[in-house]
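Homework help board

Subject: predicted structure for assignment chain

Our instructor gave us this sequence and asked us to write out the predicted structure in token form, then describe one feature. I got the tokens but I'm not sure how to describe them. Can anyone check?
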Amino acid sequence: MYHIHFVCASSQPEAMSVTILLDKPHNCFTNLDFISGRVILQIPYNETIAAIVVKLEGESKTRLISYVDQLGRPSGREHSQLEVHKVSEYSAT
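My token output:
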């Protein structure tokens, strides 16, 4: 899922349209993936663009499963722990 947050200093921001097209869209990305694409602005009037900043945000979930207790001793039970990490990346043009 892609979230678009558009901030505009123009006097007519409601007339602008922003589309993000990824070259290789996927449901999931890893920290080793290279993400590329295009940001398309449709503006029906003349406007000066000083910068475009793209912020990609995501969440990583990892479940760790072990068969040892909290003291490191072998256990007959499965112990699991969920780790959740927020990731964020900026790109300015």
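Reply (TA_rk): Your tokens look well-formed. For the description, you could write something like this. The mean pLDDT is 77. That's the kind of observation they're looking for.
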